[in-house]
Amino acid sequence: MSVVEPIMWLAPAYFMGQGFSVDGQAIGFAGFAGTSDYFSFVMMGMFMSSYISTAFWGTGFSVQEDMTLGVLEPNWVTPASRVSLIIGRSVIMFLLTTLNSIGVLIVGAALFHVNLTGNVLAAVITMLPMLIALTGLGLGIAGVVLSVRRAGTAIDISNWVVAQLSGTTFPVSVLPRPLLAVALALPTTYGFDAVRSILLGTKTMLPLKVEIGIMLASTVGMCAAGYAVFKAFERRCRKQGLLGTH
What we know:
By secondary structure, the protein is an all-alpha fold. It has helices spanning 4-19, 27-33, 38-60, 62-69, 72-76, 82-112, 120-148, 152-165, 177-184, 187-200, 208-240. The chain has one domain (4-245). Helix 3 (38-60) runs antiparallel to helix 10.
């Protein structure tokens, strides 16, 4: 189901794209995105957005899972670093997400003729700073969940908002200016844009090197911010004696 379900969600996008295309080419869409292949654009967006979901649910919500299982306190009284425990789980979740997403891409390419003509290795290297930044984001979310405890609804909404504003199914240039300003503040927006440019030949909002530079800077900023947020909430929970109540 981990492969079948994404295909079920992608199928309507494929047929909608075909319905608004002329001879298989989405001419109007090409004016915004620089490519007339709407479905390949969406497919890559879904592939990239799966990492956002992993940051929110796999990394950030991992603390909630430990609470539910009743193993949070036993794990945290060990000498192991709490940050290392969360980052270790994050790495595993990103690897599993990658394997699942590759499976979806292979099936999607076979069913819907996804055309990736660019350098895959260059795209993977370009994507790495975004993944590291998302790890920092997930660490910060884990700290919030540690304090709030029941944060499922907030995480679900935030995950959807970040994925959409990053341009999962449309180029962010079509957004109203207030929302565009928010989108341009997200490192994932530049990650989506850069990877699509490499693999699909779409036009980028900024020069590719500039977008990569922004992602590298965001990596440092988000990891530092995520660590600070996590440690702040951890100290708060320790001072208030909340860890023993989870």
